[in-house]
Amino acid sequence: MAQWLHTGRKMERLVVVLLTLITLTHTLKLPTWKQLSTSYPGYKHKGQGKYTNLELFLRLGKAPLPDEDKEDTSALRLSFALNKLGGSHRLGTDEIHISKTFDNDSVKGKDGQQYIYRTMAFGPFLAMKYKSPELIRTDPLDPDLPKRTLKGKRGIVRFVAFYNKNKHADARIALWDCDHVFEARNLGKMHHLISVEFWELPDSSCPS
């Protein structure tokens, strides 16, 4: 437990440093909650949303994803929503290269737009395109702390966790709707959670 806490804290500090190093001028405003939630494909196979994994791949034109990345489609789903919004929110037609350990972090859809599929790359991408996120405090002894902190807000949330088995960090990204993950289940219940990043949307007020 102590070793994991030490490693987890190192990973959390690394996330903070990486986001701090992003110094580009942020000129683009985040989309509104209404825009993004309407465009979001959700998880139909989990009982919420418009598309299953297979239906999403078909919509993208059978994008050639590595097998190990097909299980986590959270980055693809947010990419789909942003590209569907169009205009300056689109990811663009050039391959996206953020991760230093991989050749690319995105694939080309049949519409010619890029779709990020490596969730670890989405945080830095959003920070460069829009603004740096709010870093939500985590506590291994209080796993519900981020949920309480985010209560009453709407926006984009990214959960970063450390996996003791293979000694690496992984992430999931989704929309946060007041007190739960929007049109998805269990994305926030990741083991060894070390970082939660939140981009609050302009019209983020929740019903009282």
Automatic annotation (TrEMBL):
Region forming the signal peptide: 1-27
Keywords associated with the record: Signal
Gene3D superfamilies: 3.90.1720.70
Pfam families referenced in this protein's UniProt entry, alphabetically: Tae4
Name of the molecule in the record: Uncharacterized protein
Source organism: Bugula neritina
